Structures are given as C-alpha cells and as structure tokens.
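Input record (Table S2, row 207):
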Amino acid sequence: MKRVALIIAATALVLAMAVAIGWYIDTGNREVRSGTVTGTGTAEIGGAFSLVDQHGQRRTEKDFAGKYLLVYFGFTHCVDACPLAMLAISQALDRLPPEVVDRVQPLFVTVDPARDTQEQIALYLQNFHPKIVGLTGTVEEIGVAARAYRVPFDAPKPDANGDYQVQHGTVIYLMAPDGSFLAHFDHVTPAGEIAESLRRFVEGGGA
Ligand code: NI
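Output record (nickel (II) ion complex):
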C-alpha cells in the first residue's frame, strides 16, 4: 500500500510541475493536456534563435522584431496536435482585419529537422495561412530555439517503415513586439478565442 501511495504522490508531483510549467504534450498517438497557466507577462519564455525558413532564408528573432509573434513548435508528419494548431492559427488570422494581421507573425518551428527540410515545410504550409513562416535548422539550432521557448520534444526510434511521431509540447506562444511573453494558447483553443486575444493585444497596443 505504501508503494502505491508513493507512486500516486510522485505522479501528482509530476503533474503539478507540468501544470506549473504549462506544458501540453503531444504524445504522437493522443494528446495529454497536462494543465493550464495564465500568462503573467513575466514568464521567461522566448529568446534568440537562428534558423532557416521555408524559402531557404536564414532568419533570426531580430527579423521579426516589432511583430506580435505566434510561436509553435511541431513537425509536418504529426497526425495529432500540429495540424489542429496550424488550422487554429490560420482560422484566427482569417477572422482578423488586415491591419491586425499585418502586426502578427506566426512561426512554425520544426522539432523534426531530420525530415522537415525547407522544401518539406514549404509543402506542408501550403495547407495553412500564407503568413506562417516555417523554420528548420540543425539539431543544435532547433535545440537552442526549443530551449528558449521551453518546449520539450523527444523523437522515439523509427518503426519498421522508418516512421515515427515526435513527442512535443503543443503550446502556441503569443509574444509581444518587444519579445516578451504575453499569453499562450494550444492546439485545442478555438480560433475565435485566439483571434479575439490577438485583436485585444494589437489594438490595445499591449506590451
Ligand atoms: Ni504535433
């Protein structure tokens, strides 16, 4: 009995930590929603990165200074959270007037650089809003970006067909024009909610 209690306590602790950090894990086969946090504007999320976009251009955080960034880490072979997240972002932008969309820059950063070449990402993003910039790079470069945004990811061994699903955090971060963290959504946040939040921040000149 003691052992069971210990396991329950340990599980509760891990869950509490996940909630505190605000991670949503895309397990590949099903989504585990581990909790929610409220943006305080003080969370140390974000930072420098240097990656390559779907057109082959080297891009850093400086290229997007002055924009409200929607930052999402995922991969094009994802069959769960990623298409939902990209769709939610696309539909949110579709609902907003051009002057608001103009201030917003969505970024899709791959956590699967081995398969997500710039060509693959370009192909993938044809399914979504044209404003989305897709970013790839070396494993090291992706690691720097993922650590800055505190996005956990882990690729299991490929199956017999060479296929695999990368487990990864599924938070959509909203960053202010000055690079500070404003709020977050995830792949199940309704597009209307994302749109309203963007409109509020952009029109209110938040941060
Ligand atoms: Ni995914």
